[in-house]
Amino acid sequence: MKFRPMFALAVSLALLVSPAQAGGGSGRQEGMLDINGAQIHFVSVGTGTPMLLLHGYPLSGELFARNRDALASAGYRVITIDHRGYGMSTAPADAPGDLQTYARDALAVMDKLNVPKAIIGGMSMGGPITFEMYREAPERFLGMILIDTLANPAGIVEQNIWKGMAQKATMYGPQSLAPELLKQMLTGQTRMNRPGDTKILTGIVSQASVAGDVAGAMVLVNRPDSIPTLKTIAVPTLILEGLEDTVYPPEFSMKMQQNIAGSKLVIIPGAAHAAIFEKASAMNAAILRWARTLK
Fold it and tell me: For the segment 126-149, what is each residue's pLDDT rounded down to a tens digit?
């Protein structure tokens, strides 16, 4: 198990926040939960309709730092987690993570936080995790949000990209992935004019463990074809996409929208793969417009 800076602080927070307290208080709760043999870090903000947001590779729940308060202030309880091996979460060496484990971790967090149902959203790798959660427990969904993600399995070229990321993390450490990924997470304009955004995302990428980076890369390599799942989705669904996303371009979001009955697609100009962070205000507005239509 990798020991990371701030882990001791996270453990202290866990001692202060029990699952029962986390499920019923107001404002912000943060802590660690013992989930399926791992320690999963969570943040919960607000007291309204639950909204669980799942980050992509190789990030953490802090990807949504610009979304939590804005959505919570509009009447939602926004919950973010760090998947095992990412951010402040840890995992046993023999269970670093796979698609089913990530999905079951997220469902178990909902249980621990007394959340029977939620609007569940996933960004990038969080999309396949969301699909897996839906296949396993569709009754837990009030709605679904798919953010810069896709339902397709990985082709040969993409498989080798993620295998290369795993190899690079193993050889040079998680921080070595940041230069490879930031040029796709943020537009060139943002990287030039808002260097603070690059610094924040670089810090998040660097927090991951090597085992987490390898496990997540293999999830992306081996993810199943979720296109058949799309036609089974019977909850309101919002698809959000950065117009300049080159990892999973808008064509994939358009295909998902065509296959999910009644779904809504919103494409955000001037945003790349990390659109939820890069254009947080526009993303928040789109989420709230859609969420207010749910019954």
Answer: 999 999 999 999 999 999 999 999
